[in-house]
């Protein structure tokens, strides 16, 4: 489906654009919970998981339904780190080669494309979780649920 992605209902409420006749009364509202880290993740992604979970949990936006998206965020970060480390080992983003006409040409290492792709994916995941300054203003965090039903009284 082409076009803009749908805005979450909580964002519509906060920005004042919610129209009740368009709201989904059966929209799922998962509980706040830090998902378990998958064991199959790459080492860099595994290293990022606790930090990202802590930040998102403190922001109040992490729920039990966010595990797969969180894995995508951490793996994109891990891919970017791996690519940058490879470029550091190579000592440059480019190498020199000789073209058909005999002239020297500079070409980018394949790791440059890997870093660029990972950076695009990382930016997308960061915005979905509201982890950039511009996106943070659009995200509405749910308050922590209390066990005491009389707490509001």
- Helix proportion: 40-55%
Number of helices: 5
- What is the radius of gyration? 21 Å
Distance between the termini: 46 Å
The fraction of residues in strands falls at 5-15%
**Record field, number of beta strands:** 2
Uncertain runs are none
Major beta sheet summary = 2 strands, antiparallel
**How are the strands of the largest sheet arranged?**
1-2
Indicate the structural class: mainly alpha
- What overall form do the CA principal axes indicate? elongated
Instruction: Name the average pLDDT.
Output: 85
SSE ordering? HHHEEHH
Organism: Paracraurococcus lichenis
Protein name: Phage terminase small subunit P27 family
Description:
The chain has 153 residues and is mainly alpha-helical. The protein contains five helices and two strands; from the N terminus they run αααββαα. It has a two-stranded antiparallel ribbon with strand order 1-2. Helix 2 (43-59) crosses helix 3 (67-90) and helix 3 (67-90) packs antiparallel against helix 4. The longest helix has 24 residues, at 67-90.
């Amino acid at each position: 489906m082409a076009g803009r992605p749908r805005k979450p209902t909580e964002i519509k409420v906060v920005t004042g654009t919610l129209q009740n006749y368009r709201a989904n009364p059966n929209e799922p509202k998962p509980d706040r919970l830090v998902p378990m880290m998958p064991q199959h993740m790459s080492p860099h992604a595994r290293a990022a998981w606790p930090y990202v979970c802590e930040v998102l949990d403190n922001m109040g936006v992490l729920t039990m339904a966010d595990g797969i998206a969180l894995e995508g965020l951490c793996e994109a970060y891990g891919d970017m780190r791996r690519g940058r480390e490879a470029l550091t080992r190579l000592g440059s983003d480019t190498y020199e080669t000789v073209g058909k006409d005999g002239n020297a040409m500079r070409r980018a290492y394949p790791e440059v494309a890997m870093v660029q792709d990972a950076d695009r994916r990382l930016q997308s995941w960061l915005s979905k979780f509201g982890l950039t300054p511009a996106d943070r203003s659009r995200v509405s965090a749910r308050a922590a649920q209390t066990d005491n039903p009389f707490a509001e009284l």
